[in-house]
Amino acid sequence: MQNIIRIGSRESRLAVIQAEIIRKQIQNACPEVRIELVTMKTSGDKILDRSLEAIGGKGLFVKELDRALLDGKIDIAVHSLKEVKENRKGKVWLAGAGPGDVGLLTVRTKEMLERADVIVYDALVSAEILCQIPSEKEIIYVGKRSGNHSVPQEEINKILLLEAEKGKRVLRLKGGDPFVFGRGGEELELLAEHRIPFEVIPGVTSAAAVPAYAGIPVTHRDYTSSFHVITGHLRKDGTSEMDYPSLVKLNGTLVFLMGISLMRQIGEG
Fold first, then answer.
1. Residues 205-237: tens digit of each pLDDT
2. Which end of the chain has a smaller Cβ tally under 10 Å, C or N?
3. Domains with residue ranges and CATH for the chain
C-alpha cells in the first residue's frame, strides 16, 4: 500500500506556493511517498475589503485547516496570513536637536536623521544641524518665530499625523528639548488619539546648556539646590502669568526662556 501525505493549505497563491515548498522538501527526503495538496477556503478568505486588524485577527484563516487536521482529512496544515494590503502605519519620533551646537546633538537623533523618511523641523534648529540631513530626505519646514507663525500649531499636528498615516518614518525635529516649552505634548496628543506609534528623544535644553557654556552652574551646594525654567511668553490675552514674589521665595536659579520682549518686566519683577 502506497503511503500518502496530504498537505492542507488555503487557496491563496501565496499559501499554495508555501505548501508546494513543503511538498518538495518532503518529496526529496521521501521519494517513495505520494503527496497530495488539499486546498480550502477559510472564513477569512471570504472577507476581501477589510484589513486584518479590522476583521479581528489571524484565527479566521486557520480554523478550517485546524479542523481538517483534527478530523484526519489532512496530515499537515500550512498556515498563511491573508493576502490583503494592510493599512501600514508609520511612526513619529519627537526629537530635540539641542541648543544649536552640532556637538550636542544626541547619537539617537543623529541616527534618526539617517533613518527617517521625512523630517519636519523648526526655525530653532541650527544650520549646523540641518547640514547633517542627507540630501535625499524629504523635509518640511514648520518654523515659528515670535509673532510670525508660518504654520499654525494645529496644522503642524495634522502634518505629523498625515505623514505617519502614509506609512512613513517621521522625525519631528525641534530645537532644545521637545518637552521644554516645545509644545511636544500637544503634537503627541493627536497621534495618541489616532493610535499612531511614537517615541520621544530628549534633547539638550538651552536652559542648562547656555548657563553651562557661560560657566554658570544652575545648582550649587553652597548657594542653590534647585533651578526653575520659566516661560517669558504672555498669555493669549496679553497678560503675564508670572508670580514674581513666589519665584523669588524659591531661592533657586531662575531661567527664563523666550523672554526678550518682557526683559524689563522680568528684571523689575
1. 999 999 999 999 999 999 999 999 998 876 666
2. N
3. 4-78 (3.40.190.10), 91-204 (3.40.1010.10), 217-268 (3.30.950.10)
Is there a contact between 45 and 61 (Cβ–Cβ < 8 Å)?
A: yes
Residue from 62, 58, 63 nearest 79 by CA: 62
pLDDT for the residue numbered 18:
85
pLDDT of residue 131 exceeding 90, the answer is yes
d(CA 63, CA 212): 64
Res 89: pLDDT: 79
Question: How large is the average pLDDT for residues 68-88?
Answer: 72
For 87, the grid coordinates are 493599512
Predicted confidence (pLDDT) per residue in 164-181, tens digit: 999 999 999 999 999 999
Q: How far is CA 186 from CA 35, 136, 165, 201, 246, in A?
A: 60, 29, 18, 16, 28
The residues assigned a catalytic role are 122, 144
Residues in CB range of 38: below 8 A, 6 or more apart = 6, 7, 8, 9, 68, 73, 74
Instruction: Report which residue type is found at 185.
Output: G
Reference 147, options 26, 233, 241; nearest CA is: 233
Measure the CA–CA gap between 85 and 127, rounded to whole angstroms.
Answer: 40
Q: What is the pLDDT of residue 227?
A: 94
Kindly state the cell numbers that stand for 134. 542627507
Residue with cell 498669555: 235
Selection from 75, 73, 14, 67 nearest residue 42 by Cα = 67
Residue 50 CA to residue 57 CA, distance in Å, equals 11
